Structures are given as structure tokens and as C-alpha cells.
Amino acid sequence: MKVKRFFSNLTVRMMILVIIMHVVFLNILYFGLGAVVEEGYKSQFIDYVRADAYNIAASMSGSSELTNNINKRAIEEAVLTGRTVFLRVLDNNNKVIEEVGDINTPLINERFSEDFAFGHGDNNRYHIEAPLFDANNQFLGRVQIGYDETDTQEQIDLAYQRCFLFSMIYALLAFMLTSYFGQRMTRPIQALQKLTRTIAHGQYQTKVYVKTNVVEIEQLAHTVEFMRVELVTQTDSMEHLALHDSLTDLPNRVLLQDRVNQTVTSLSQKEHPCALVVLDLNRFKEINDSFGHLVGDSVLKRTSTTIANSLRPSDTVARLGGDEFAIFLPETDIESAKNVVERMTEALSRPFECEGHSVVLGASIGLAFFPEHGTNYEELLQKADVAMYVAKRAGFNSQIYQPQFDKDALQQLTLISELKFAIENEQLFPTFQPKICMETNQLIGVELLVRWLHPEKGVIPPNDFIASAERSGLISQLTQWVLRSGIKQAAIWYGIGREIPVAINLSPKNLVEEGLYQSILSLLEEYKLPANLLELEITESSMFADPLSAKKILEALDTLGIKIAIDDFGTGYSSLVQLRNIPISILKIDRSFIHHMASNESDAAIVSSTVYMAHMLGMKVVAEGVENEETLNKLKKIQCDFVQGYFFAKPMEIHDFEKWWQTTYP
Ligand code: C2E
Ligand code: CA
Ligand code: CA
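A: This is the predicted complex of the input protein with C2E.
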């Protein structure tokens, strides 16, 4: 693997290429050049020996007697120079006349063979023969000369050695240069590689720059730098997305947690408390449900700016989800945290215009302090959350966490398990509150209001357990119990000729349940009660969770002849016009308006216009919570149909109610 990687290296590859090229080229060079030089030397040698031999022969030719012509001294001189190894003169009968030099080879007896090329005969000699003539050109004999080839051979060998040496030096130089330039060329690539690796490891901040004069590498570096910059922006925006809420662009849970934990760990030793605030909008769900999600979204955006505007720059506001926000106030004390909360509450309770709707929100706020209530994000958030719920339940704007609250939460849990037992074991009992007709003063119906007789705590009012029952899902069992109790009582009265409708309160949760219609139908059949003696009170918010199926159930119940009443009207956001499509026959105006109508002009105006509008839409109107005559008279003037309240009677147990009935209507 390592070897394979080594050979994948660019420089190594270039060097291998150079080696291969040079092995080929140098061979050509070596053998080609060598051959040329060799040929040169050889032909030079042959030219020389030929010329020399013919010179010698010429010097011996020309006279009639061969012996006269032989200049022995010259011959010996020629042999002595070393070039000529031997020289032999033969007459025309092949008889040796003169012999000088190394006469042993070739032996006289052997046939003298002339060489035609350098190296013939393999004896380091070049044999050549030339004819001798007299003055009349008559053949006299021949001269045989042997020349020494070794000098030339040595020269040729030397030439080859030099050639080899040069080739080697050349190859070495080429090899060194290639490796030098190869490394020089790949160095910026390696630098680039290193930079891209650091980028891949998540360090994007270093600018990509390599020093090079190779255009391609420079362009590559530019491209990598471009990619880095893109990556930086992309990572930044991804990081932002991961840590922020997409709707409000506020920090999200993750970022908040990070900031809180970082601050509290760095503060642990010091004495600066911090506060974590949980804020839940009060009427957001209704706004969202009645005006639609677009309005809901823009309300949330408005709210986040409103909250942020009441904070210091060092504070963090985060959206936890839905209409829940958390605010982290580092280095604060109870007083300044309270001030911040007050500013926020004040700002959030101001009505504002949103997409053409007038909106009043309000918020419930819970506070928990570091280090008193918790030493990390989770603890603080949990405590602030508990405090917020307490504030919401109690209808306070804000609440600082107290250890007592945890007990309350525990009590809630016990309460739920006890309530289950209570429903199954007849600890619940109904009370009845009469509804009176304004015009005739007659009893026109009763509302069933449930109570819980707790073995230790005594009578518990519904406001203390209905919400828990809704949260825990026990509400369907509870409603079932109340329906049976109310239908049973109405059937008893019906049996003795008193046709008094009984109104039952339904929780919004009941309307999204599957079997509601069927169970009402079977109860009516079981007790043989005409449907018109049953009334159902629902709140505006019942229509919000699943308007279509709510409408379907209500229409079905209406078809049976059951009357539907809208309870606590005015506290929600629905308008009468919105409720027009649902089969509603009774409108119960919330007691908060009725209470104040005697003293408050605008409440009186709201009640009066509501009554007027309801009549236009064919509904009857019940005024809830009538406590005095003054209110009653005002209601009379604006032609409200029915009244219900302590002025006539409180909700009563069945025996008290029967007594009241007999004394009031003897
Ligand atoms: P609600 O349906 O608005 O019932 C009227 C509440 O106003 C009753 O309180 C009644 O006692 C009270 N009230 C009547 N006249 C007056 C008055 O002149 N002045 C004042 N200040 N109050 C008056 P209660 O019985 O404590 O019930 C509270 C709420 O609990 C009810 O409000 C209803 O929403 C819920 N609830 C009661 N019984 C049931 C039930 O069986 N099922 C469900 N789901 N909810 C119930
Ligand atoms: Ca009611
Ligand atoms: Ca009511």
C-alpha cells in the first residue's frame, strides 16, 4: 500500500518518466554516437593504412629488379614506429624476399589473407597486400603489411567510455533537475492539499494562498479559496439556522441553553445571580385560531421585537416554541429582573393593530434564579416553567419560583389520581343553578355545575380540577358522568311533568372525541328523555381545535333537537358573524361584562349590542352572573332574554334546589 502510494506521488512519477525516457534516449545516444565515432575511427584507420600501404608499394615499384628497390631502412623505420607490425616482400613466385617485424604471424606457409574491415581475423591486426610493378608496369611481386589495430581499438573503447560517462552525467543531472523542479512544482500543490485538509477539518478561517508561478496551480488555489469563502457563508447560515428560530430569528433552545450554561459555569464562583424567565402569551391560541396562522405569525414576530426592546443588549431572548419564550438575564438581581418583567408585561398588555385586527395579548411569566433555584439550564428552565404555570393558573402577570410550587405540582398529580377514583366512586355530585326568563320571571332551565366532595379536603370547586382533568384526559370520563347525572335528573323531572331543560358544560376536548354524539344519543334513549330537554354549553374555543368536525357534531346534535349554547361569550375572539354557521340557539354573555355593566358604560354598550346582534341572528341571550337588581334592570331595558346569577340563586344541591323551586314557584 505504502509502495503504491509512493509511486502515485507526482514527483516520483515524473522522475520515473525521466528515467524511462533517458534509458531509451541514452541508449540511442550511447550506441548511436558510439557507432558514429567508431565508424569514423575505423574508416580513418583504413584510409590511413591503405594510403600507407600503397605509398610503400609505390616506393618499391618502378625498377626491373625488386631487390634494388627495397629500401630496408625505410621499412624498418615503418615497423619501428609501431604502427606497422610486419612487412613482407614477395616476388612473383611468392618467394619471400624481405621480412621485417613480427614475422611469425602469419606464418609464411599459411595463406596471407587480406582484411576487408577493421577487426577482421581477430588478431588485432589489419592485413593488407599491395602489388609491385616495374617501370614497364610488369608485375614484380607483392608487399604484405600488417598494421596494428590496438591503438585505434583503444581509441574506440575510450570514446565509448567517454560516451558512457557523459551519458551518466547527463542522466544524473536530468534526474536531479527533474526531482528539484518536480518538488518545486508539487510544493504549492502540497501546500494547497494541506489547506484543503484544514478546511475539511472545519477550520475555514485561514485564507487560501500559495506562492506559485504555475498558472494552473494558481487558478486551482483561487478556486479553492472561492470554495472556502462559499463554505464559510454556507456554514455561517447553517449555523444560524441551527441556532435560531426561523420565524422570529430569535435564538432557539439550543443557543439559549449554551449561553445559560456558559454564563453560569463561568459565574459559579462569583456572587452574581442570573435569572431565567419563561414567558407564555395568554391569548395567542385564540388569536391564531380565529384570525389564522398568518396573523398568528406576525403577532409572534411583533411580540419578539416587543420583548427584545425591553431588554439589555447582554440579555438573550429565545423562542422555545409556539407562543413560549425564554429570556436569560445574566448578572441581575431580583429587583432589576422584576423591573425587566414589569417593562415586558406592560409592553405586552398594550393593544396593537395586526393585519387589520386589534389584538390584546398579555403574558404569564415565571422566573427562576441562579444559583438559588438551579445551577444549570435544565433546572432553571424547569423551575421557571413551573412558576409560569402557577402565574397562569392564578391569573398573575408574573411569579418567582418557590419550592412550594413543586409540592403543588405533586399535588396536581395526586389530584388527578384521586379524581379518577372520585369519578368511579361517586364522590362527584351535581349542583343546579336556575335560569330565569326576564319577561315572565319563570324558571326556564337549569345549569348543572359539578362539585367534588373530597374525603379530606371537603367540597372542591370545578375550577380546581377541570383544567387538570382536561390535561390528563380524564375529562371524557368526567363529562360522561355529568351527562348521565344531568340526563337522569331531567328525566326524573320529565317523569313528574316538569319539563325543565338541563344544561351541561362541555369541555373543548369533548368536541374532538370520537364517541360523544353516540353516547349522548344512548343516554337519551336509556332515560327516555326528549332531546329538547338537554342543553349543551360550549365555549368559543371549542370551535378552534377542529372547526369542521366540531361543526359536524354540533349539527348532528342540533338535528336531534338538543340546544347548543355558547358559554362565556365575549372572552374569546370570535364574533357573532363567525358563529353564524353553527347551529347555536343560546348565547351566554360572560359574567365579567355583566358585573361591570352597571358601572362601566363601554361594558354596558358591549352587552347591549351583543344582545341586539344575537337577536338579529335568531339566538336567545342569557346574562350570566347577575348579582343585583341594578344590573337586572339594565338587562331588562336592553331586552336580554334570560338571567342567571346569585341574585336569584347560587348553584344548589338537588334537595336545596327542589326546596328553592317549591318556595319560589309554589
Ligand atoms: P360557567 O359555565 O361559566 O359556570 C358559571 C359559573 O359562575 C359557576 O361557577 C357559577 O357558580 C358561577 N356563578 C353563577 N352565578 C354567579 C354570580 O352571580 N356571581 C358570580 N361571581 N359567580 C356566579 P362554578 O360552579 O365554580 O363553575 C366554574 C366553571 O367550571 C364553569 O363556568 C364551567 O366552565 C366549569 N364547570 C362546572 N361544571 C362543569 C362540568 O360539569 N363540566 C365542565 N366541563 N365544566 C364545568
Ligand atoms: Ca356554563
Ligand atoms: Ca359561563
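Residues 433, 449-450, 461-463, 466, 482, 505, 507, 537, 567-568, 591, 624-627, 644-646, 651 surround C2E (ligand 1) (CB under 6 Å). The chain has a mean pLDDT of 88.
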